[in-house]
């Protein structure tokens, strides 16, 4: 990016300081980096004709250069003269820079004599229009957003007066610094968040800031999407993570998004159009992707989408559609580019439509990655008249409604009232082609996919079709009202053994013919889908697994349950070929079953099971019913002679 020079004649030290302060304010919004020079040639010349030095320089000026007549008291009525009143203010100076940049872009390159117009100043603008421009631009009325596009309300940063320390503003040095940070995630996030908040108080040129923010973007994306066995195991072992850790990650993503949107908002306020201004569109798309990642991060941890995330994405969908920029992929440089907004929106929409709150935590990232391969098959269109009135759920398979003015993800068209479907700015998202591609992967002759991917596809296809129905009725709890809940295999074993074990008070929210849903207030624990839970009611105990879980940011959670047949009894088991004795839960059902810690089950393994009284039973493992990182539930066959 070129550095453009300014020369000032007759300016006092105070005038220079004021100009420098305004430059620091505007450089992040302009296309070039402006700097004051005391010597040599320049692009823009300011003359304070109130003193002898400035007046003399004005009288000997080169009329082919861009000269600004400055005075605290005198008005020059010369035709086509650029003039502003001293002292310099933000209302008049910004337009001068914008005017200079526009003509610089059309001029010859800098030469030994400085900046020249392709035409003389008198011919650049019609005198009458030039006078109107002076009356609007230079006297404080700045450009307005494009009138033919929808209004855009971006999640911009709020700059506080708090003074923060210096930060690294060189992208190369920033990468080196990041490589030396601690691997401890909470500490790393706290440092990143503090640095991003500090950027709000810094005056950094737009070009440099984009390159700087890109380093933070890549780091946060790596932390969220890169998963390995060590990270998964470490997260699974934390039953009470600090809520601040989740909040910090979410706030860091939002803070970075706001910084991009703040840059974009300056282009928007100047009346620029995203299809014509690469940086404008890039900042909109990059900010949108970070909002999408904030939603993804929330779903990974079974949290509701943070406030205003979907409202921002839905609003941008309509804005960029009308600006004809939905499918454009802006590129700042070969190393800094963005996906189209359409790709970003469709991917997070598909992920949320698939109901991640019913998936195991680590399947959500796998799902997000898998859906990125088919997202180009998703269609977003106006809602046709037929779909506006259609009520048949089967005929609406794969159709979802996007409510542009709400803070909600797309929802099934069959569950959307007709009046909502008929709102002009609402849109239809169609997944039928996605369902076709995913369905082909399940055909036996085409089963070349990873087994876990196939299981995941089979699980989410009903949700993507908007046709999910339970295959069997959910069993009801015998009792309603307040229920005590213990979660996690080890905690349940301790509880049944009479040892102290943490538990939570829950309320049966729905005990209708559709089954039971629990409401958990002040849920600070880390509960996962498929996790084993024990419900302690007034007269009985009930084992269950979590089949759906969602917690809001005030820690009010809801949980759907899949009840397990049989009353749990404390037992132990010992493999025939080993000396280790493992705690177990015995289920005396028609087909007897055991629940043990992970690692006990293997096909046809010989075990000796001891009940609470110590009576032995020789068994052989049969079928594994479910297995997580926490426990295994499997059936067994009693050996003859036991």
Describe the structure.
This protein is an alpha+beta fold. Among the domains are: 4-104, Rossmann fold, CATH 3.40.50.2300; 475-563, predicted glycosyltransferase like domains (Thrombin, subunit H, Beta Barrel), CATH 2.40.10; 568-638, Thrombin, subunit H (Beta Barrel). It is 36% helix and 21% strand. The strands form 5 sheets. A 6-stranded antiparallel beta barrel has the order 12-13-14-17-16-15. Strands 18-19-20-23-22-21 form a 6-stranded antiparallel β-barrel. Strands 2-1-3-4-5 form a 5-stranded parallel beta sheet, with helices on both faces. Strand 3 (44-48), helix 2 and strand 4 form a beta-alpha-beta unit. Helix 7 runs parallel beside helix 10 (243-269), helix 10 (243-269) packs antiparallel against helix 11 (278-300) and helix 11 (278-300) runs antiparallel to helix 12.
Condensed summary:
By secondary structure, this protein is of the alpha+beta class.
Shape: elongated
Could you say which structural class the secondary elements and strand pairing correspond to? alpha+beta
Which sheet architecture does the biggest sheet show?
6 strands, antiparallel, barrel
- C-alpha end-to-end distance: 83 Å
For this structure, what is the CATH homologous superfamily of the domain at 4-104?
Response regulator
Percent helix, as a range, is 25-40%
**Rg calculated over all Cα atoms:** 33 Å
Count every helix, treating DSSP H or I runs of 4 or more residues as helices: 19
Mean pLDDT across the residues is: 83
Broad CATH class of the domain at 4-104: Alpha Beta
CATH architecture of the domain at 4-104: 3-Layer(aba) Sandwich
CATH topology of the domain at 4-104: Rossmann fold
Low-pLDDT ranges: 108-141
Strand order of the largest sheet: 12-13-14-17-16-15
Give the strand content.
15-25%
């Amino acid at each position: 990016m070129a550095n453009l020079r300014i020369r000032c004649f007759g300016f006092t030290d105070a005038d220079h300081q004021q100009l420098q302060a305004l430059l620091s304010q505007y450089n992040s919004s302009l296309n070039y980096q402006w700097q004051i020079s005391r010597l040599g040639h320049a692009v823009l010349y300011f003359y304070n004709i109130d003193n002898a030095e400035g007046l003399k320089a004005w009288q000997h000026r080169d009329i082919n250069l861009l000269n600004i007549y400055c005075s605290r008291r005198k008005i020059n009525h010369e035709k086509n003269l650029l003039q502003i009143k001293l002292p310099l203010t933000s209302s008049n100076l910004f337009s001068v820079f914008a005017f200079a940049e526009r003509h610089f872009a059309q001029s010859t390159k800098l030469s030994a004599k400085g900046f020249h117009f392709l035409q003389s100043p008198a011919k650049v603008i019609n005198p009458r229009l030039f006078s109107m421009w002076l009356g609007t631009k230079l006297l404080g009325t700045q450009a307005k957003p494009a009138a033919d596009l929808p209004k855009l309300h971006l999640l911009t940063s709020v700059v506080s007066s708090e003074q923060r320390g210096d930060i690294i503003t060189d992208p190369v040095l920033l990468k080196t610094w990041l490589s030396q940070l601690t691997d401890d995630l909470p500490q790393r996030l706290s440092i990143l968040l503090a640095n991003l908040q500090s950027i709000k108080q810094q005056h950094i040129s737009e070009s440099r800031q984009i390159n700087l923010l890109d380093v933070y973007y890549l780091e946060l994306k790596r932390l969220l999407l890169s998963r390995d066995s060590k990270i998964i195991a470490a997260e699974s072992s934390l039953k009470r993570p600090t809520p601040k850790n989740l909040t910090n990650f979410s706030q860091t993503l939002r803070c970075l998004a706001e910084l991009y949107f703040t840059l974009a908002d300056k282009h928007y306020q100047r009346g620029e159009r995203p299809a014509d201004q690469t940086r404008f569109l890039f900042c909109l798309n990059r900010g949108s992707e970070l909002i999408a990642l904030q939603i993804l991060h929330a779903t990974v941890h079974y949290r509701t989408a943070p406030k205003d995330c979907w409202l921002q994405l839905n609003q941008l969908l309509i804005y960029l559609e009308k600006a004809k920029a939905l499918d454009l992929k802006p590129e700042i440089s070969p190393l800094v580019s963005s996906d189209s907004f359409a790709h970003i929106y469709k991917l997070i929409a598909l992920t949320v439509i698939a109901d991640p709150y019913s998936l195991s935590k680590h399947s959500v990232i796998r799902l997000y990655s898998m859906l990125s391969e088919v997202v180009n098959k998703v269609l977003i269109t106006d809602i046709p008249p037929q779909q506006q009135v259609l009520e048949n759920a089967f005929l609406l398979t794969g159709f979802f409604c996007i409510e542009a003015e709400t803070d909600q993800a797309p929802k099934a068209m069959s569950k959307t009232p007709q009046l909502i479907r008929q709102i002009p700015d609402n849109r239809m998202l169609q997944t039928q082609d996605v369902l076709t591609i995913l369905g082909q992967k399940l055909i036996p002759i085409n089963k070349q996919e990873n087994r876990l991917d196939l299981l995941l596809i089979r699980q989410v296809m009903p949700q993507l079709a908007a046709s999910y129905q339970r295959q069997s009725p959910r069993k009801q709890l015998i009792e309603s009202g307040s229920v005590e809940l213990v979660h996690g295999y080890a905690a349940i074993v301790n509880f049944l053994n009479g040892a102290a074990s943490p538990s939570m008070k829950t309320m049966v929210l729905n005990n209708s013919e559709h089954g039971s849903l629990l409401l958990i207030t002040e849920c600070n624990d880390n509960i996962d889908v498929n996790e084993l839970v024990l419900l302690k009611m007034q007269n009985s105990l009930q084992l269950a697994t979590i089949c759906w879980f969602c917690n809001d940011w005030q820690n009010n959670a809801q949980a759907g349950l899949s009840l397990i047949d049989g009353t749990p009894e404390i037992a132990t088991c010992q493999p025939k070929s080993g000396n280790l004795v493992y705690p177990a839960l015995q289920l005396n059902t028609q087909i007897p079953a055991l629940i043990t810690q992970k690692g006990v089950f293997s096909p046809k393994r010989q075990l000796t099971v001891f009940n609470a009284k110590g009576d032995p039973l020789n068994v052989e493992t049969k079928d594994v019913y479910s297995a997580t990182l926490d426990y295994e539930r499997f059936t067994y066959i009693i050996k003859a002679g036991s």
